[in-house]
Write a structure and sequence with these properties.
This protein has about 150 residues and is of the alpha+beta class. It has a four-stranded antiparallel β-sheet. The radius of gyration is 18 Å and the shape is globular.
Length: about 150
């Protein structure tokens, strides 16, 4: 199996595609990020070995999980390669591709062009946020059977 097909399935199921803003929200400085979260370290290590990126571990009282994360141009290149195989995260991939493929260096352009680029980036960030929120909200529309209260309650 093509490793990009497999990665697309992981991203659709346990992953994220998002645009992370730097601390100053309206400056337009942002990172495109692709990530996968899983409790299986072997899987996360395989992702890092095959696609680069970083691994972060997190723990709560019950368990430990791992996050594989790639940012900026490497993330853009990966997203372009998995795009044809994505299903549920396809819109996020489209937004990330548009964001990165038209990105210009804000330090090297006149102020008027910089302001337009910042507006474009903020619009795409809002679109991405809307798409990611929409996916989270689907559980409230179609709740998991175990989380529904019984009619006897």
């Amino acid at each position: 199996m093509n490793k990009y097909v497999y990665l697309a399935g992981l991203v659709d199921g346990d992953g994220s595609i998002f645009i992370d803003r730097h601390s100053r929200k309206n400056t337009g400085w942002c990172n495109v990020i692709i990530s996968v979260t899983n409790t299986d370290y072997t899987l996360i290590k395989w992702l890092s070995e095959n696609f680069g990126g970083n691994i972060v571990s997190q723990r709560n009282r019950k368990r430990e999980w791992y996050i594989w994360r790639v940012a900026n141009e490497p993330a853009f290149n990966i997203i372009r390669k998995i795009y044809p195989y994505l299903i549920s995260k396809k819109k996020q991939a489209e937004i990330a591709i548009e964001f990165w493929s038209k990105k210009i260096d804000l330090r090297t352009v006149p102020k008027s062009q910089r302001e337009e680029e910042i507006k474009r980036r903020l619009r795409l960030i809002d679109e991405m946020h809307h798409e990611n929120t929409r996916l989270k909200d689907r559980d409230s529309i179609c709740p998991h059977p175990k989380t529904q209260k019984s009619k006897q309650d």
